[in-house]
Amino acid sequence: MNIIVDAMGGDYAPEAVVKGCVSAAKDFDINLTFVGVKEKIQAVLQNCNYEREKITVVHTSEVIDGDDDPTVAIRQKKDSSMRVGLKMLAGGEGDAFVCAGNTGALIAGATLIVKRIKGIRRVALAPIMPSETGCFLLVDAGANAECTPSFLKQFAIMGSIYMEKIMGIRNPRVSLVNIGSEEAKGTPLVVDTHKALKEVPFHYCGYIEARDIPKGDADVVVCDGFTGNVILKFMEGMGMVFYDMLKEIFYKNIVTKLSAVAVKGGLKKLKKTMDYTEYGGAPLLGVSKPVVKAHGSSNEKAFYHAIRQAVMCVKSNLVDEITDNIQKYGDDPRKETR
Amino acid sequence: MNIIVDAMGGDYAPEAVVKGCVSAAKDFDINLTFVGVKEKIQAVLQNCNYEREKITVVHTSEVIDGDDDPTVAIRQKKDSSMRVGLKMLAGGEGDAFVCAGNTGALIAGATLIVKRIKGIRRVALAPIMPSETGCFLLVDAGANAECTPSFLKQFAIMGSIYMEKIMGIRNPRVSLVNIGSEEAKGTPLVVDTHKALKEVPFHYCGYIEARDIPKGDADVVVCDGFTGNVILKFMEGMGMVFYDMLKEIFYKNIVTKLSAVAVKGGLKKLKKTMDYTEYGGAPLLGVSKPVVKAHGSSNEKAFYHAIRQAVMCVKSNLVDEITDNIQKYGDDPRKETR
Lengths: 338, 338
Known about the structure:
By secondary structure, the first copy, chain A, is α/β, with parallel strands linked by helices. Chain A is built from 12 helices and 12 strands. The first copy, chain A, is globular. The two termini of chain A are about 35 Å apart. The interface between A and B is large, with 54 and 54 residues.
């Protein structure tokens, strides 16, 4: 198996990318292809212990930045690490692609270059999020600000397959975000999706209110990309505020600092529970080959887990599973034309 | 000044309602009219110390429950405390109405019975939410799952006036929830509202990403009611999960329990920071007389603050302020017909 990696994506590229991925490659016994500025990648590799024949470096001269306009950048930066990596994936030179770069560009590039699975209407960004009792998949977290019921139905199917095949959760509980639990409550989008999801032979549990998401009441949380992005970022923001406040409490004086020592283990566990790096990145569901979006602020550990995730996607034939199920259940009877 | 109170609304009615409101009435030197089951109200009043002539009790035989269908209940339960209270407000028998009952029924009832301010397209639910640096107004938090740019524009205007007049924040920072900071990002609703808000002479600061909301980067956070309800409930859920985890950490053993004592003050402050009861309830913005929705789980303190809030609305002529500003700036040039 060969995983292609955009060595230039993310806040700590290429150092954290190369180190984290090489470490994972050894553990999972796979090959890697790093795409990016050769000298920079080689400089990091020099300090890594690895089998030379298992790692390839492909030089590219351009980088897509976080500030770049996604669709413009992916079309115009022809020699960017992201675009070249996606081209290689599409051309069969690797089995999966891992990238921590510009999210919009990656979604646009994966759709344009690697293409969607046949029958899939939209590619979804589906991060694994921490909850009190484990984790859940949020789909869509921002790839599609506007959705139709058939998009959401497909997101639910893909999310369920992902949580079962990759995260090992049997019969994942799939829920649809709504602002109440009554049947008729919510927008037409939600009400129509609810009807459509009842017809699908997955474990659809109905509506979930946002209050119950952090508790871990669902394994797959389905919503439009606007709502999903708000949830993703609000969770991030709340987490940061909580930590700031706790830090302030414990750093106050010598007594509080001592008490911090006593609960150190517990606080560490709390932090770990709320730590996305444990789970790797966000798969782009619906692309015809596995593409994993690592968080922009990914450290070595996060890249390690993103590689693990990509390996799991390849090994479990995720794309074939999705293709089969979308053919069977993913088509909307009303044949939306959007 | 006379504030009408639905004595039967909320989880701890009528005890917490009556006690909290009586205590506030004494401090702010106002009259109260409790609407609800007379014997139950009188039973609580017996244990309260108050001036008899300042408190009136109006007997009603019905109660609108949390599970009732809002529009059906408000039309059919003619002798419910909520409906009778709203009728009295509309008829001029009081200056404001405070109620912790069924939110949907209260919004429907306020719109049908008390009516909207002239020119206002939709009534918005606008809770005061805690942030790291203070508090912010979330508008709309669920009254309108679907919105148009002109609804949101009016929400922004009303929210700004509320934060200035009631919360004493000079020139409140008004922001619009979006999933990115680029001009063209987001749904057509958001992009069009952004354009409209730039024309209004309030302190409009542009888009806010959900990540920056808990930090307190805006005083008025504007969004459609679906998004707002997700934010409101997600914050509630995250808070609960966080407390559960902290509790677990500190209750582990004798050493951690001792360390909890050292940081007790800090944790209490943290809890207070995240405590909605400090701020009272959510005003229903756009109604032609002040209506305050107290949280369903309001305790005495929350009712105290809800009364304080209602008193402030009356004293500051909030409704007149909104009326004037909506006449000047609230009309959408494109004259939406919805």
